[in-house]
Amino acid sequence: MTRAMGAAMRRIQTGNALSAFGLGFTVPYLYVYVAQVRDLGAATAGIVLAVFAMAALVALPFTGRIIDRRGPLPVLVGAAVLASAGAASMGLAGSVPAVVLSAALLGAGTAVMQPALATMIVWCSDTSTRTRAFATQFFLQNLGLGIGGLIGGHIVDESRPGSFTLLFGIEAVMFLVLAGIVCSVRLPRALSIKDAMPENTEAKAKGGMRALLGNRAMVQLCVLGFVLFFACYGQFESGLAAYGTEAVGIEPATLGTALAANTAVIVVAQFVVLRFVERRRRSRVIAAVGLIWAVAWIAAGYAGLGHGSQAMATAAFISTYALFGLGEAMLSPTVAPLVADLAPESMVGQYNAAFALVKQLALAVGPAVGGPMGAALHGPYIATFVLFSLGITVLALRLGKQLTPVQNQPSLAAKSRVVAQHKPAERAEPAAV
């Protein structure tokens, strides 16, 4: 990585962390704010959460092509401004139309920021540094969300709507800070995507979704990604939370402890895990995550269906979230860089946007399926997601057969460059007399 690439990357990561800090202020309290603080009812709060997700599904299909044609920087700035407007208006909204419109702006803005940020990270990295760059992004996101949620929890007061207005105001400012920081970034020409700059992409990006669907490895990765997000993130605040309160009998406050354990494992383990992941095949790392998550779901099954003490059940339930965190720490330097490495040089934005769309679909379907099952069908719920986790392992191993050796293990490229640099020059033959 050149000095210019390193400087740009540090600014991008700083802006990413600050925007995550702002999101952590409000996301955990959005339902309470709409339903109770603004007294608009549980139904309206549910609509707001649905609109938040649907706005992302509407915006993302158009995002990738714009990124590839105009570059990620203007897209990221526009998305940050849009999200800032949504956050500010949400803090002042007092009617159903106002909160729904605010949720649409906030949901679309935050969703579009994901592929734009990912593309900027790709532009500012090469094959040898991309794994660590995405691991750092994930680490800073979780750290920002965790700190934001912790501080926000000490500020909010359901009896004072002004405290929520303050939170949404801080979030709006953080998005503008992100926009300001990235505006100061001078994007270098990344070594591995030399033709990915906007002036060269208009003619190359015409293949669009048809070209993406023709890439068997990317299609398999999208299927795998859907299962990953459905079986983990799609259950955190819906099915698994319902299962914990109904089957395990834990107090709602314990859910906060479990989420804190998840974040703590990610923060503590991320760079320790990174050293292990960097030397392994990506497909095998993802396969191992499936096995770890299967154990996590078995622990959750013991917590709700076993016959141990309440203390043991609570400990097992918290360990489920901790094991999920370990798997997430293994995935962050694996999946996102793989999306970039599979993308043609002129379609990095479209590949990132397509994968973000798959994630949003999983996050929309996951609660709808897992919520009712986790609340009422305890045994089938656990069995279903143990099978989904084992399915991750199978899909990952199948994906590995579609990848080139360097795509599956980028460290091989670094080794080959070192060998080439140190290969002794052939001795010249003596000239004929």
Describe this structure in words.
The protein has 433 residues and is an all-alpha fold. It contains 19 helices and no strands. The C terminus is likely disordered.
Q: What is the count of DSSP helices, taking H or I runs of 4+ residues?
A: 19
β-strand number: 0
Order of helices and strands: HHHHHHHHHHHHHHHHHHH
Strand content: under 5%
* Largest β sheet strand count, sense and barrel closure: none
Q: Assign a percent range to the helix content.
A: over 70%
- Mass-distribution shape: globular
Content-based structural category: mainly alpha
Write the layout of secondary structure elements.
Blueprint lengths: L2 H24 L3 H8 L3 H30 L1 H21 L3 H28 L3 H29 L5 H23 L24 H6 L2 H16 L1 H4 L2 H10 L3 H26 L4 H24 L4 H22 L3 H8 L5 H29 L1 H23 L4 H4 L2 H12 L11
Helix pairs in contact: 1-5, 1-6, 1-7, 2-3, 3-4, 3-5, 3-16, 4-5, 4-7, 5-16, 6-12, 9-16, 9-17, 11-13, 11-16, 12-14, 13-14, 13-17, 15-16, 16-17
Summary of the model, kept short:
This protein has helices spanning 3-26, 30-37, 41-70, 72-92, 96-123, 127-155, 161-183, 208-213, 216-231, 233-236, 239-248, 252-277, 282-305, 310-331, 335-342, 348-376, 378-400, 405-408, 411-422. The chain is mainly α.
Descriptors for this entry?
single chain; disordered C terminus; mainly alpha; 433 residues; 19 helices
